[in-house]
Amino acid sequence: MEYKSFSIPLRKKSPISINVIPGHFTTSNAHVNHYLDVSSLKANVSVAQSVARELAIPYSANTIVDTIVCMEKTSVIGAYLAQELSKDGMASINSGSSMHIVTPIHNTSGKLIFQENAVEWISDRNIVLLVSSISSGRTVNSALECISYYGGKIVGISSLFMVMPNTLGQEVNSLFTSDNIPDFKIYNTNDCEICKKGRKLDAIVSSEGYSRL
User: Fold this and answer.
1) Is-contact 182 167, C-beta < 8 A?
2) Residue 202 has pLDDT above 80, yes or no
3) Residue 157: pLDDT above 80?
4) CB neighbours of 89 closer than 8 A, spacing ≥ 6?
């Protein structure tokens, strides 16, 4: 990866920013020309608190939330989001309520499931789904299918980054989108313009980070 990374803030003087690395990267189902590093948003405590405050805005006034389902290592943000939504005060419809933070697991067949002790926090509950990033929508769709199976009601989807346009068929509250990244491109693995130019892959990327090739 010979190109220098750069940072994009959520807005001027905001503590929330993403680190962007230009290059040639592969995900599990696509090639991209920029890697979006959101790890500090998930791992830095003070930043995660700021992220939670931003993500709480669409829900605070009029969305009842019982449970936050966290995917892709977003549990720290999820906990702060629950704290923000349940703060005492007239501005929040969830003021004083008790929320749960849950993460599904994969069974031996690779399907997402909730463990038995967590099912009561999903069934007939109002759920906000929190993910790190949305590109193809596979992770979100798997989570939505799982939540639906256990009888949960989705009242919101939030992400740190989302590739535009949104093809999920429902609104997503995302901090950043590909519109914030200059010249962001995503390619089908079999029709990648960067590959056609003969450039080798720089790294494999996932919600966990990246591994150089």
Assistant:
1) no
2) yes
3) yes
4) 95
Q: What length does the chain have?
A: 213
26: left (phi over 0), alpha (psi -120 to 50) or beta: beta
Strand partners, 162: 134, 177
Phi and psi at 108, nearest 5°, equal -65, -20
CB 121 within 8 A of CB 102: yes
Quick one: tokens of 200?
A: 């080798």
Element (H, E) at 139: helix 138-149
Task: State what percent of residues in the chain have pLDDT above 90.
Answer: 79
Q: Which CATH class is domain 6-212?
A: alpha beta
What residue spans define the domains of the chain?
6-212
Written as one letter, the residue type at 11 is R
Element (H, E) at 50: helix 45-60
Q: What is the DSSP letter of 97?
A: -
Rounded to a whole number of angstroms, the CA Rg of the chain reads 18
Judged by DSSP in three states, 53 sits in helix
Residue 162 sits at the vertex; the CA angle it makes with 159 and 164, to the nearest 5 degrees, is 145
Quick check: helix, strand or coil at residue 116? helix
Average of pLDDT values for 92-117?
Answer: 93
Count CB atoms within 10 A of the CB of residue 72. Answer: 20
